[in-house]
Structure formats: C-alpha cells, structure tokens
Amino acid sequence: MSAPTQALCVLLLSLSLAFAQSKPRARDLGVAFEGTPGPLNAITDVAGVEVGHTTLISGPSVRTGVTAILPRGKESKDPAFAAWFTLNGNGEMTGTTWVEESGFLEGPVMITNTHSVGVVRDAVVSWSVKHGKSFQPWSLPVVAETWDGYLNDINGFHVKPEHAIEALDKASAGPVAEGAVGGGTGMICFEFKGGIGTASRAVEDKLGRYTLGVLVQTNFGVRKQLRIAGVPVGLEIPDNAFRSALGGSPEEVGSIIIVVATDAPLLPHQLKRLARRASLGLGRVGSISGNGSGDIFIAFSAANADAANPAQLARLSMVPNDQIGPLFEATVQATEEAIINALVAAETMTGFENHKVIALPHDRLREVLRKYNRLAEAGGR
C-alpha cells in the first residue's frame, strides 16, 4: 500500500470513528441505567470483536444495509462457543441448526433486511473462501434479518454481494456507529426511527472480571408500549405514531436481532441460558414479543480459544453455574441500554413511497424523565 493510500485509509478510519462518537447516547440525555459499562459501552469492549456497517441510502426509496459482527476479528478463523434462542420465530437467522448441533459459531454474524438474507449469506461464503476463513470445506453462515419495507423498497433487492463484503472488510474494533446505519438503516422501533444500538457491562464475580457486550438491530414495538428507565415514554409522547394513525389499535409486528458477546469462559449450554436472558432486557423496554415479531438472539464467548481444533484434546475453562448470575444481569442491562441507544441515535427519515418516521425527540424524552423524577445527571458513554 502506498503512503498516500495509507494516509487516506487512516483519515477515513478517523472520520468513521468520529462519526461513531458524534451522536448523543442515552446516558448523555440523562437516562439512568443500572450496571457499569465498559470503556466504549459497546460490544467491541469484548476483546477481539469487530463490527462493520455498509449503509445504503439512495434516491427516495433505498434505505437499507448490512452489519457484520466478527467474534474474533477478520484475521481469525477460530470458531467461538455459541448458542442461539428464539423468543418468537416470525423471522430468520440462518446457520443456527449447526450452531445448535456443534456449539460453535464458525464465522461472522451478519444482519440485514428480510429479503436480502440469501445474497448476504452467499457473499459470506464467497468472502470466507477468498480469505481462507472457512473452518470446514463448506460454510453455514449466520445471517439474521428484520423487515425494513416501510422505509425501504425491500423488493428492489438493493443489497448486493459487494455490500456484505464491504461490511466484513470494514469491520473494526473501537466505537460502533449506531442508529440508521448498516442493517438498521431502514428500521423502526416503537413507531420512532430505530436501527443499530450497542452497550456493554463490566462484570465481576468471585472468580474473575469479565466483559459482556450487546448489539441489537431494532425494528419492533408500538408506541404505547415504550418504557425508558421504567417510565411510560410511549404514552407520554404519542405524536406521529404512524401505525396508530393508520386506524385501529396496532399490533406489534416488528422484530429484533440481539447479539451477545462475552470474554467469560462459557460453554454452549451456558450461552443458551445467556441468550434467553436477552428476553428480559427486551421486556424492560416494553416489548410483548407479538405474533408478528421475529425476536432471535445469539450469544458467543471469545474465551477458550482453539477449542475447535480437531487435532488436539481441548482443555476448557468454564464459569461455574453458581457464579453465572452477574453475567445474566449484565445481559439484561446491556440489552435494555442497547435498544435505547438505537432509539436515541436514530434520526428522522423519509423513504419509500414518501413514508416518514420521526426520531425520538431528545428534549421531550428529558421532559418526561424529569416529570417522573427519573432524569439522571447527563454524561457517560
């Protein structure tokens, strides 16, 4: 790589990190959360985890994209212990039968829109082959989705293989861009603009110190359900609830994908338990996981490196079940905060067929929290 090209790459990386940090987050607005976040308050606080986005915004109708989460970064093809859980299955996450059977996640977790799962899956196979990242002679990628068809021309099939590959190639550690980015570009949450959100927790028990991070793609909920810091924000800010405006009492028809990462040494059956606890964080913000909702979660551990090596006996470490409680608590807390971070970061968007979805108004949110004596001193990460 030439010196000018290297300089340009450094500049672009600096700009992307600045963008990731430029938007306010929920704590900046005075939303009170439990638990202690990691340095970035992001899934990338878990060492080795990298996140990349490709955001597609074009013309009046294209509002979509792809997000990639790599458990051990681009340079590794070492599988990570993993497990998945579906709270309500009106959605898709490919590759989960092998995750369930083997207990391993052999590549990235990709998130996109519902009608682009196939093209993203195929692109991951191509990327893995090109870069020698396939653990087996065949690939069974994990690709999840939520539906962005209100703001995006989803049947225009705008996500192409190169967009998925770009998200993988751009994946990095450090701050994670939130809101209407990547797979979350066209998503909606509680009839406000939604998208990507992340959070983390520093965890300490009798046996060690660990980090747990969560990344969500939010596309669920009706306005009246929304609760923030225990406050019925959705009832207090009913304006521009577009589904409600269409007539009748709307049902929850959206979805959420939740990715949980930790450096705690957990085995697959324990990670299944962790993935289930994401449901409680989802419930804290008001979701009922309605009939039309695809609420699908995956959890992985970055510990126990080389456990999948077929040439040697694996020697593993494991957090005892009696000590796993703080990790359950961290999962609930980080899931709740990641969802609210997605709402806070998102901006008002107009898209397909001139549909418009407003962002959660920050000033109104602070007013409501103050009314219920739940406004904390602004600050944090």
Strand fraction band?
15-25%
Identify the quaternary structure here: single chain
Supply the number of structural domains.
1
Along the chain, the helix and strand elements come as HEEEHEEHEHEEEEHHEHEHEEH
**In this structure, how is the largest beta sheet organized?**
6 strands, mixed
Strand order of the largest sheet: 4-3-12-11-10-9
What structural class do helix, strand and pairing data support?
A: alpha+beta
User: How large, in whole angstroms, is the Cα Rg?
Assistant: 20 Å
List the uncertain runs: 1-20
Average predicted local confidence, pLDDT: 92
CATH topology: L-amino peptidase D-ALA esterase/amidase
Q: Kindly report how far apart the N and C termini lie.
A: 35 Å
Helix count, DSSP H or I runs of 4 or more residues: 9
For this structure, what is the CATH homologous superfamily? Answer: L-amino peptidase D-ALA esterase/amidase
| Helical residue percent band | 25-40%
Tell me, briefly, the overall form.
Answer: globular
**CATH architectural category:** 4-Layer Sandwich
How many distinct beta strands? 14
What is the CATH C-level name?
Alpha Beta
